[in-house]
């Protein structure tokens, strides 16, 4: 019988049975959603700058790529540092892919906790929105909040893209904003950044020029020997306006109670004051 040699060559695993050749093909599905397409990691850092007036925002659309020093370099220009500062706690979000803005799958990162992402992907980023600040115009109009990442420095929207992420690489984002105007900020907005006209309604604390009028807050602390001597004003139907004599009148009628030195705090609501790096509350006694 004639000897027959049969040879087969294939780039995939081969199974030989007698003179039959079976080629086994394995298909690898491309990952989607939050999965990575290649191995390796990159890091996305973000900073948030808040200013006390919109005129101090950089109008950076169309500018250079965002780098590790973009935020600090900008603060060092002119008198920017007198009107703007780095926020210590702002939050951001990122996700893989090219889906629409409203789709799910976003993960959190912050100015304190960078995002670690797998490389070889398209990354979308945005800041976590706070309605106490002026909104994004989502256009080329520069009277707007601003957010830029890496090489995506176009338009005034809250949706930045980092493409072709490389391993062992740091990418940087920076956001800029200003508190939403309010009655008492010393300026009359017509309209304000939400398209609404600012009006004074004549209530206490707001003058016709829409600025806050001076007011004094007095506080006293009453300490009693027995909890039974506390007034429980809100639960016993005894709720009355607090006046300058309320504390002393209570002490006079309750020998086990006395007025003591105490310290209190006050602040304006977030929607009605301009935050700064140092002024968070004031102690009064």
What is this entry, summarized?
This protein has helices at 70-75, 80-83, 246-253; strands at residues 14-17, 20-23, 41-51, 84-86, 91-96, 107-110, 115-118, 123-127, 146-149, 160-162, 170-177, 221-224, 257-260, 264-266, 282-284. It is mostly beta strands and 285 residues long.
Question: How would you describe the overall organization of this protein?
Answer:
The structure is a single chain. With about 280 residues, the protein is mostly beta strands. Among the domains are: about 40-175, Immunoglobulin-like (Sandwich); about 220-260, no CATH class. It has three helices and 15 strands. The protein has helices at about 70-75, 80-85, 245-255; strands at about 15, 20-25, 40-50, 85, 90-95, 105-110, 115-120, 125, 145-150, 160, 170-175, 220-225, 255-260, 265, 280-285. The strands form five sheets. Strands 3, 4, 7, 9 and 11 form a five-stranded mixed sheet that branches. Strands 6-5-8-10 form a four-stranded antiparallel sheet, with no helix packed on it. Strand 1 and strand 2 form a beta hairpin. The radius of gyration is 31 Å and the shape is elongated.
Fold topology:
Elements (H helix, E strand, L loop, with lengths): L13 E4 L2 E4 L17 E11 L18 H6 L4 H4 E3 L4 E6 L10 E4 L4 E4 L4 E5 L18 E4 L10 E3 L7 E8 L43 E4 L21 H8 L3 E4 L3 E3 L15 E3 L1
Parallel strand pairs: 3-11
Antiparallel strand pairs: 1-2, 3-4, 3-7, 5-6, 5-8, 8-10, 9-11, 12-13, 14-15
